[in-house]
Amino acid sequence: MVSIVSDLAKSTLEKLINATIEESRYICCFTCITDDFEKERENLIAKKETWEEYARVVTRRGDNIRKDVTHWQKQAKELIEEDTKMKVKCFFGWCPNCIWQYSRGKELESKTEKIKKLMECNFENVGITRDVPDIEYHSSQNYISFKSRKLKFEELFNALKDDNNYMVGLQGMGGTGKTTLAKEVGKELKKSKCFNQVIDTTISNTPDIKKIQDDIAGPLGLSLKGYTESERPRKLMDRLTNGDKILVILDDVWGDISFEEIGIPFKDNHKNCRILVTTRDIRVCNKMECEKIIQLDILPEEEGWILFQKHAALSDKSSKSILDIGRKISKECKGLPIAIVVIARSLKGQTRKKEWDLALKSLQKSMHIPGDDENWSEVYTCLKYSYDNMKNKTAKNLFLLCSLFREDEEIPEELLVRLAIGAGLVEQIDVDYNYDVYRNEVIVAKYKLIDSCLLLNEEFESVKMHDLVREMALSIANKEIVAVKTSNKNAMTMVEKGKNIKYLLCEGKSKDLSSLKFDGSKLDILIIYLNEMEDYYVKVPDPFFENVSRIRVLYLSNNTYKESTMSLPRSIQLLTNLRSLLLESFTLGDISILGKLQGLETLELVKCWLVELPREIAKLGKLQLLKLNDCMFKRNNSFEVIESCSSLEELYLIHEGISKTSHKVHLPNYQRFCILDFSCFFMTKEFFARNSLNMFMADEVFSKETFKNLVQKAEILCLNGLEGVWKSLIPDIIFPDDDEVDPFPLNF
Predict the structure, then answer these.
(1) According to the model, what pLDDT value does residue 148 have?
(2) What is the pTM of this model?
(3) Does 430 have pLDDT greater than 80?
C-alpha cells in the first residue's frame, strides 16, 4: 500500500516538474518566442499582400471575392497588428513581472501556430465570377409613370403575381413602350421578392436560339459553354425548374418559337418558372396560349406632350411660341412614345422658332409609303425627320450601316469602326491618313445617333437599333442595304435580282453562300455568317470573288460549333479595292496570298489557325491596323513579321505564349496597342479597349527602347517576371506622381 502511494506520488511529482519546466519556458525563452512570432508574421505580411493584390485584380475584373478569402484576410490582419514590443512591467520596481511574461509568451506561441496554419492555406481562385446582371441592370432610367401606364403597370404586375398564370402576354403596336414597361414591372417584381430572378431576352423576327439560351443562362450563373446543341436545352430546363421562382421575359416575339429547342419548361412542368411575352401581334399571344393578355395602347395626347417636353428640355421658362409649336409637333407623333422621343431629342437645344416651324411642316406632309398602313406612314415620317435633320454626314452614313445588321443584334463599337472606315463612310479630314483620328470621328457619330435615340446604347460600348428605326433606315436605303438568310428563298431571289446592292449581309449554310449569284458590281461591304455546315471544309469557288471585285470590306465569320477549314481561293487577289478584311474562327493554313492585297488597311484574324504569319504581310504598304486575337500558329514568328510592318499604327496581339521569341523585338511607337498573353493571371475586358500590356518577362522580349515606349504609353499595365535593372526603373518610367494614371499591378 505504501509502495503504491509512493509510486503515485513519484509519478505526480515528475509530471509536476515537467509541467513546471514546460511552463517556465514561456519566461526563460520569451525573447526566442517573440522572435519566432516576428519571423512568421513577416511571412504572413508578404502572403497577405500577394492575396490582396489578386483580390484587387478580381474586383477590377468585376467578380466577387470568395468569403473564405475574406475571412482569411481578416484573421491575417488581426495577427499582423499584434504588438510584440517589450512592455517591461516590474514587481515593486525591482524585477520584471514574470507573471506578465509567462502570459504573454504563451499567447504569442499560440498565435505563431495560428500564423503557420494560415500560411498553409492556398486558394486556387480568389474570386467567384459575378452573375450576369439581370433585369435590375437593364431597366430604363428614363421611365415615366403616366396615369395610363400606371394602370397597365398594376394590371401586368398582378397578372404575373398570380400563380394561376404561367404565361402572360403584353401586346401593342411597335414603339408603344412594351419593352420598357415589361422591364420596369420585372424590376418591381424582383424588388418585392415575388421572384428570385427576373431575366429578359429578345426573340425578334429571326430568333437566334444560342443567344437566347445564353441570355437566360447568364444571370442564373449557368454556363452552357462546351455543351452540344442537344445538351444545352436540357441543362437550361433543369436550371429553370429547380424550384427557384424565375420570371423569363421573352421580348419582341413575332411568331412560333420552340420552348423545347430553347430549354424553357412547358405549362404542365414549369415548377416556379413564369413567362412574359411581348409582341405586336395578339395572335401570337393566342397561339402561345397566354392565360392573360394585356394590351398597351398609345399615349393620350396630354401624356405625349409631357414626354415630349422632357426629352426636348422644354419648361415653363421656354418661349411661348416654341411651346405652342412643340405641342403641335407632339400631336403629330400620334401618341407613339418612340416617335415622340426621337423627334423631341432632335429639337433639343434648338432656340430659333424657324427650326421648330420647319420640323412641324415636315411632319405635316406625312409622306405616304406604298404598301404600308397609315400608322407606319406616320411613324416613318416622325423618325425620318430626325434622320434628315442630322447635320453630321458621317453619322447619317453610320446610321444606314447599322441597319445592315440583324434585327436586335448588338453591334460592337470596334466592328463599326472597321466597317465605316473601310467602306469610306468617314468624311476626309486631311490628307495625312491617321486611323485613330478616323476612329474618333466614327465614335463621335455613334454618340450623336445615341443622343438622337436613333441608336440604343448597350453594354461594352455596343449599340443596336430599335426594330422600327431599322425598318425606317432600310426604307431610306431603298434596297441598297440587304440582310438575308439563305433559307429565305424569296429574299434570296431579291438578292439575285438586285442591281444596286451596296451592303450585303448573308447568313446560312456554307454551300448556299458559296453558290450565291448576284450583281456585285456596286457592292462595298460583304458580311457572311456561316451558321450551318455540311462538313468541316468551307469551299469558296474562284468565281465568287470575281463577282465582287470592287468590295472595300469583307467579313467572314464561322458561327457554328465546328472547327472549319477554309482555303482562300486565288481569286481573292482580285480584290484590289479591299480596305478591311476580317476572318473569324477558321483553320486557314497558308495565307501568304493576302500579300497581294496592296490596298489593305486593316487585317483582323480572330480564333484562326495558321501555319504562320507570312512575311508577305510586311509588304502591305498601307496596312494601318493588325489584330491577331486568340490565333494559333504552327510556327510562332509573329513578332518577326510585325516589326517589319513599317506603316502599322495599331497592333492588337492577343494569344498565349507570345513571350517566346528568339531575339529582342523592336516595335515602332504605335498610336494604339493591346499586347496580351492569355497565360497571364490578370485579364479584364478593359484590356481590349485601352492601350495595355500584359505578359511575362516583357523586358526580355522587347528592346530597351520598345519596352520603355510601351510602358510609358500603357493605360493598363501588368508585368510579370521582370528582372534586373528594370525593377528599379519602372517607377521612374510610369510617372507615379501623375494623378491621371490608373493603378495597375506590377508582379516581379
Answers:
(1) 86
(2) 0.67
(3) no
Contact 184, 150 (CB under 8 A): no
- 3 state SS for 117-137: HHHHCCCCCCEECCCCCCHHH
Amino acid making up residue 533 = M
Q: Cα-Cα-Cα-Cα dihedral of 228, 233, 234, 236, to 10°?
A: 110
CB count in 10 Å sphere of residue 519: 15
* Separation in Å, CA 53 to CA 47, 345, 571, 697, 747: 10, 45, 53, 19, 9
Work out the burial of residue 248: count CB atoms within 10 Å of its CB; fewer than 13 is exposed, 13-18 middle, 19 or more buried.
Answer: buried
Per DSSP (E only), the strands in 405-497 are: 456-457, 463-464, 481-485
CA 683, CA 694: separation in Å to the nearest integer? 8
More confidently predicted of 678 and 395: 395
d(CA 150, CA 318) in angstroms, rounded, equals 29
pLDDT of residue 137: 46
Distance from the first to the final alpha carbon of the chain: 73
Highest mean pLDDT among 1-10, 501-510, 534-543: 501-510
DSSP string of 188-249? HHHHTTS-SEEEEEEEESS--HHHHHHHHHGGGT---TT--TTHHHHHHHHHHTSS--EEEE
Number of H helices, E strands in the chain: 27, 28
The mean per-residue pLDDT over the stretch 26-31 comes to 68
Q: What is the pLDDT of residue 745?
A: 45
Tell me what pLDDT residue 650 has.
92
CA dist 433 and 431 (Å) reads 6
- Residue 679's pLDDT band, with cuts at 50, 70 and 90, is low
Query: Whats the size of the chain, residue-wise?
Result: 748
CB 621 within 8 A of CB 648: no
Smallest CA-to-CA distance from 264 within 248, 276, 285, 245 is with: 248
pLDDT score at 736: 47
Q: Which three cell numbers stand for residue 383?
A: 423618325
Q: How much is the pLDDT for 275?
A: 94
- The predicted pLDDT at position 6 comes to 57
**pLDDT tens-digit readout, 127-180:** 555 555 555 544 455 567 788 888 999 999 999 999 899 999 999 877 788 888
Q: Which residue has the cell 475574406?
A: 70
In this predicted structure, the answer to whether residue 501 has a pLDDT above a threshold of 60 is yes
Residue 370 confidence (pLDDT): 44
Nearest 10 degrees: CA dihedral of 667, 668, 674, 676? 10
pLDDT of residue 735: 47
Selection from 168, 161, 210 nearest residue 188 by Cα: 161
CA distance 25 to 627: 67
CB 118 within 8 A of CB 72: yes
Please tell me the distance from the alpha carbon of residue 669 to that of residue 692, in angstroms, as a whole number. 13
Domains of the chain, first to last: 17-128 (no CATH), 135-295 (3.40.50.300), 299-381 (1.10.8.430), 390-459 (no CATH), 664-748 (no CATH)
Q: Are 621 and 595 in contact (CB under 8 A)?
A: no
User: How far is Cα 666 from Cα 707, in angstroms, rounded to an integer?
Assistant: 9
The CA distance from 137 to 139, in Å, is 6
